[in-house]
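Below sits my pick:
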Amino acid sequence: MSGSPAGAAWPIALAPGSAGQSQAGALAVPTGVTATCVSATATTIRVEWTALPGATRYDVLQSTTAPGTSGYSTVAAGLNSASWTGGSRASGFTYYYQVVAVTGGWSSSPSTTTSPRTISGGTCS
């Protein structure tokens, strides 16, 4: 059976001046994305970013593999504010985060990857 590979993205041409082109072109990539340890003795990480005009909600993506890989999964979706706090991160892992802005049926490209945060022995660094 032929077809597209799993997860393949196909380009979509939007008509010049169409509502779709206007929405897609207006949704910027989130900036100012940071990940911080809530406390050095906790397993909670807070992700914050700069709110974007035109974005109605945000999704937070998390990975435990090096940046540039495809190992990101959504850990929070439909957020109405420009921050998220994820508690009880598993020990023994380094975490990386990205944020996606969403409006209507449109999503921005993921933000740049945050600096890594490592949880080890119940501490965050």
In short: Strands lie at 34-37, 45-48, 57-63, 73-79, 83-86, 93-103, 106-107, 117-120, 123-124.
